[in-house]
Design goal:
about 180 residues; Rossmann fold; binds inosinic acid
Length: about 180
């Protein structure tokens, strides 16, 4: 069993290290091709995207810059409220630049809707979204996803940067969090 365990919780593997790496490589190649000759600024949405972002930018064989936007959504642990708090703003001016937002997961889409509207007021030349995961069955806001790793069922996933109550972010793969009455 993987060493990261918490009493009463289990993680069932959904995407292995190898499956994620292969998908990230393909996304990176596509992004490099489509942004050739453009002033690309990749913006990682913290905290969940930190691992995906680190792998993705290494898979983009083209000039780019990196920035981060810290975000936390109010609400309980497994459901978003759509009310977003900016915990860390961008460190550079985005006016006239081509932004690629890098997100861990789009669930209802409410967080991303808020961020796209928020960043649009700063007049970037373009804004597109790259997300590792999407739960299409849960969509409550129409969000255009330019680059997507995987579509997943409506289950709560952890690992590869994604957390449950701050835990599991360091799990190197993505799995479904399952609760059991007995631990172990
Ligand atoms: P949305 O606003 O419903 O699209 O939710 C987006 C945010 O909720 C993501 O950036 C995650 O931080 C969190 N989230 C949604 N679903 C999951 C999940 O299955 N595991 C971990 N975090 C999730």
């Amino acid at each position: 069993m993987y060493p990261i365990t918490y009493p009463g919780e289990k993680v069932r593997m959904l995407y292995s290290v190898e499956a994620i790496a292969a998908r990230v490589k393909a996304l990176g190649e596509q992004i490099a091709k489509e942004y050739a000759g453009k002033d690309l600024l990749t913006v990682g949405i913290l905290k969940g995207s930190f691992m995906f972002m680190a792998d993705l930018v290494r898979a983009i064989d083209a000039p780019l810059e990196v920035d981060f936007l810290g975000v936390s959504s109010y609400g309980n642990h497994t459901e978003t409220s759509g009310v977003v708090k900016i915990t860390h703003d961008l460190s550079c001016d985005i006016e006239g630049r081509h932004l690629l937002l890098v997100e861990d997961i789009v669930d209802t889409g409410l967080t991303m809707r808020y961020l796209l509207d928020f960043l649009a007021t700063r007049h970037p030349a373009s804004m597109r979204l790259c997300t590792l995961l999407e739960k299409p069955s849960n969509a409550r806001s129409e969000i255009e996803i330019a680059y997507k790793g995987f579509s997943i069922p409506n289950e709560f996933v952890v690992g590869y940067g994604l957390d449950y109550a701050g835990r599991y972010r360091n799990l190197p793969w993505v799995g479904v969090l399952e609760f059991s009455l007995t631990s172990g």
